[in-house]
Hints:
- Helix content is 45%, strand content 28%.
- The protein is of the alpha+beta class.
- It has two domains: 3-112; 119-236, Immunoglobulin-like (Sandwich), CATH 2.60.40.
- Strands 3, 5, 7, 8, 9 and 10 form a six-stranded antiparallel sheet that branches. The chain has a four-stranded antiparallel sheet with strand order 1-2-6-4, with no helix packed on it.
- Strand 8 and strand 9 form a beta hairpin.
- The model is unreliable at 231-239 (pLDDT under 50).
Amino acid sequence: MTKKIQVTWVISVFWIIMWGWILYSQWDSAKLMDLNEWGDFFAGMSGPLAFLWLVVGYHQQGEELRLNTQALSLQVTELQNSIAQQKIIATTGRQELAIIQTQHERDLEREAEAINSKFEILSASEQELRTYLRFYIKIQLNNNHAKDVSIELKSQSNSANIEKASMTSIPDSWIKQESHAIYIMSPNRLSSIEEISFELTISFTDNLGESNLQGFKFISKETLPLRLIPSIHPRLIDR
């Protein structure tokens, strides 16, 4: 109960007691009144009380409306804060999902790199003998296992007869970090041609049982030693 209601009750009780005392003190005259006069009496006595309670009720209702408005404002503020928090959570979730996805893609790349076999050229050199050229190339398998390994030699020069070159044999099954050297004997000499270029194509079956091709291109000139062309080192060949 608010203070206004308490004061109103005190005034109302005092008002009724006052009019009761007046009626008691004038009872000899009051008992001779007619019914319509009694009605006027009670109307005059209760009218101010009714007006007082009407005014107090109006202010009380206004106070309750103000409190309800404040409560609604607080609810709106809380809802806005909740929406902002949800947006932050959603943004953070998307960022975390992107990080997880990126990490997952990197893990897949590492797994694929760990699973897929990959050959590398460790060294390449040449030696010009009296009647032919000898090329020395050392190849290494960097990861996992490769089987059914074979190497095809193909000339990239118009005048070099590299297809007729003889090449040392290699094992058909390799393990990780295993390396082998191959010698290529060519009937050509650099003094007779300006340039010799050729490609080694390694075909193999990887650790997943899938067939793969990997190619390396080499070039040799009279003024420059045998070297691997960097632009395609190594080059995976589409099947």
